[in-house]
Write a structure and sequence with these properties.
Blueprint lengths: L1 H39 L1
Length: about 40
Amino acid sequence: MQVENLENLKQGTLLELLKDRETKIYRMIHYNMSIRYIGKL
């Protein structure tokens, strides 16, 4: 019981970390594209 909860907690944390990383990467790409777009104007 205790071990299962720990595993679920680990997986949940990993998922959160992955989501957070994806969000950061998405923001970086969006930011870079915005700069390029503004630079073309």
